[in-house]
Amino acid sequence: MMMFQRGFQGGYRGGACWSGGYLGGGWHMLFMAAVLLVVILTIIYLVNKSTHRQDNKDVLDILKMKYVQGELTEEEYMKKKELLLKK
Fold first, then answer.
1. Can you tell me the distance from the alpha carbon of 21 to that of 30, in angstroms, rounded to the nearest whole number?
2. How far apart are CA 57 and CA 80, in angstroms?
3. Which pLDDT belongs to residue 48?
4. Residues of the chain with pLDDT > 70: what percent?
5. For residues 39 and 7, what is the distance between their CA atoms, to the nearest angstrom?
6. CA gap 20, 10 in Å, rounded
């Protein structure tokens, strides 16, 4: 209980937690920047991943149409489909 009171009620360097209490100096800002960076990178990764899947689906639809229209043999269709699904 004593440490809690010191940090939030002005024990060290005359301030609360944000002015040098538990985290000290600028470490809390560095930590928050790192957390924010991780959140932003995660969002970017998930958006890119879902966009990539949609692109792959569109390409597979085009490939299927070419096969149905007779522009590709079954062997060509299967090889190209396999390649697209690996990505």
1. 15
2. 13
3. 79
4. 62
5. 28
6. 9
d(CA 4, CA 11): 10
Q: Which residue has the tokens 């569109």?
A: 58
Q: Which two tokens stand for residue 43?
A: 């969002």
Q: Provide CB contacts within 8 A for 59, sequence distance 6+.
A: 84
pTM of the model: 0.40
| 21: Cα within 13 Å, side-chain hemisphere | 15
CA distance 73 to 54: 25
Structure tokens at 44: 């970017």
Q: Region of 74 please: left (phi>0), alpha (psi -120 to 50) or beta.
A: alpha
Query: Within 10 A of 11 (CB to CB), how many other CB atoms are there?
Result: 17
The neighbour count for residue 21, using CB atoms within 10 Å, is: 20
